[in-house]
Amino acid sequence: MNPKLTRRRFIKGVIASGVAAASTSLWYTASGQNRPAGAVERLLTINVNGQTRRVDVAPQETLAHTLRYKLGLTGAKLGCNRGECGSCTVLADDVNIYSCSTLTHEVKNKAILTVEGLRAADGTLHPVQAAFIQELSPACGFCTSGQIMSAVALLKSNPRPTRAEARQALSGNLCRCGAYDHYLNGVMRASGQLS
Amino acid sequence: MSSHDVMPEMGLYQPVSVEDAVGLASQLAERGWLVGGGQDTYGWLKDRAKRPEVLVDLKGIESMRGVRETADGIEIGALVTLTEITRNPLINERYALLAQAAGRVASPQIRNVGTLAGNVAQDARCWYYRRGLNCYRAGGNLCYADTPEGMNREHALFNTSRCVAVTPSDTGTALVALEAQMVIRNAAGERVVDAEEFFVGPNLDIRHMTVLRAGDILTAVRIPAKWANAEFYFEKVADRNVWDFALVSIAAAMRVNNGVIEDSRLVAGAVQCTPRRLTSVESAIRGKARNQETADQVASLAVQGAQPLNFNHFKMPLMENLVNRAVRGHA
Ligand SMILES: Cc1cc2nc3c(=O)[nH]c(=O)nc-3n(C[C@H](O)[C@H](O)[C@H](O)COP(=O)(O)OP(=O)(O)OC[C@H]3O[C@@H](n4cnc5c(N)ncnc54)[C@H](O)[C@@H]3O)c2cc1C
Ligand code: SF4
Ligand code: FES
Ligand code: FES
Predict the structure, then answer these.
(1) What is the mean pLDDT of residues B60-69?
(2) Within a domain: A172
(3) Rounded distance, CA B114 to CA B76, Å?
(4) Among A47, A68, A62, which Cα is nearest to A111's?
(5) Which of A41, A42, B204, B283 is the most buried (most CB within 10 A)?
(6) Do B312 and B155 contact (CB within 8 A), yes or no?
(7) What pTM, to 2 d.p., does this model score?
(8) Is A37 within 8 Å of B113 when comparing Cβ atoms?
(9) Number of structural domains chain B divides into
(10) What CATH number is associated with residue A60?
């Protein structure tokens, strides 16, 4: 299946249902001519993985929902959907956040980076991805994309962290397989401190 | 296509000035809900336990950001995130107590977006209430936690009145210790409230944990110079070091001269509905040496008057030990 086609179909479907929703929600009043200052427009242009994407976003929609179900970017996982596990972690302007607990409208002016955006154009993996493979960091893999994104955020602000700093930086990412030390080995390798 | 977003349908405004936000907040009143970082908010909405109709996202308001020096201390914008607090040089240099407390909230990702205003204005974490049960705090006429079988391990020791929930805010204790002041705007103007009066218990108002009412916006928190560079102690005990709320926490600020405590503020978290000032300990240590001996003499004063529930007796020795450590000055 061609993922691009699916994505396009997704967006079409959403725009259609958005119109249907308008009659029942406050969106109608919010989009009127005399709306109070600050009412949101639904059609957003957002920057995801360096690309400009046009997408129809409901006011209450979470970033995880927009990414997964409208842009076809399923790398951010929904584990708990309430800020308690970290599997939905993505970066907004290089800061790691829970996409399940962020509204897309809240970050519409920020550059969003998901695990899909880490690979170089020629397919080379990001150093954190490569190091996690070499250190056999993931067990089941469900938490992995979140662990990767937290590690990437850490190395952007602190390229040579101590193991304690790495532990702290990844502490908002739960791993039910308990592969924590393997992920930490991966971070130390990615930062060139393991050979 | 299985793609349900568990967020209920609702409106959203993103004002860029305090005036517009105040206008919206007072116009919407109970139908509106202010959002800082949203980290306390979205759980309520996803669970349908609270049902506002319109969100007012404050993050676009530039004047509510940043940390400024004032004639008497500093002013922290209400939208400053907990991560920014832990990294801010002014706060770390003079009011490290607040930086330490903020650094113990939730998880890195939550601190990256959670605001200081949201942290002090967050609602009770009692699981019966969070589940949407119609208890006293929700407007009903019973408490599910304070029953023979109620699970009240995390609930209050002091000053309960029908509701036995505790304050969940880690920064709240530090702000009360530092004698912070909360700057609140509404359609009628601005008022400034001492942190100690900002938090309210169920005897005063069982439906609210703070003096904030619909239409009020907390715009800034001021910290006076009085406790700048004092000796500080913060410790929070929780089941896990990440995500979990305090079982008991302690925030202390002390002026010590030649080893003698001249003045102090000691505040415990998670033992009652508001940050609890330990005034009896404060007066007992005035003029005493800051050492283990003094700590051993006074620690038991902290738990005098405690009225434990079925499952939270453990909080009494825990609190006593934390006070002991705070007074002697090390873990
Ligand atoms: C898994 C998890 C663990 C957590 N652990 C902790 C913890 O250990 N310690 C702790 O202290 N907290 C904890 N929290 C609670 C909370 O999310 C954070 O404390 C955070 O700081 C809340 O800030 P926010 O800006 O995201 O709040 P929001 O959700 O945006 O707001 C919270 C409340 O404050 C109101 N509000 C927000 N801004 C203003 C304003 N400017 N004026 C008036 N009212 C306002 C909102 O209307 C809402 O009622 C946890 C939350 C989660 C989900
Ligand atoms: S402790 Fe308070 S919030 Fe919890 S069930 Fe009782 S009344 Fe409700
Ligand atoms: S899915 Fe977002 S933190 Fe668990
Ligand atoms: S590898 Fe299985 S949850 Fe982390």
Answers:
(1) 98
(2) yes
(3) 14
(4) A47
(5) A42
(6) yes
(7) 0.93
(8) no
(9) 1
(10) 3.10.20.30
Nearest ligand 3 atom, CA B109: 3
In a domain, B194, yes or no: no
Contact between B35 and A107 under an 8 Å Cβ cutoff? The reply is no
State the Cα–Cα distance between residues B173 and B166, nearest whole angstrom.
12
Among A residues 47-76, those touching chain B with beta carbons less than 8 Å apart: 58-62, 65, 68-69
**Domains contained in chain A, number:** 2
Closest CA to B31 of B54, B58, B8, B56: B54
Q: What is the CA radius of gyration of chain A?
A: 18
A82 and A153 part of one domain: no
Per-residue tokens: A129? 């991805």
Q: What is the pLDDT of residue A24?
A: 34
Residue A51 is part of which domain span?
Answer: 40-117
Ligand 4 within 6 A of CB of A176: yes
Instruction: Write the pLDDT tens digit of every residue in B222-274.
Output: 999 999 999 999 999 999 999 999 999 999 999 999 999 999 999 999 999 99
Interface of A with B in 132-171 (CB under 8 A): 150, 168-169, 171
Please compute the mean of the pLDDT values over residues B214-225 and round it to a whole number. 98
User: Could you tell me if residue B170 is inside a domain?
Assistant: no
CB atoms within 10 A of CB B47: 14
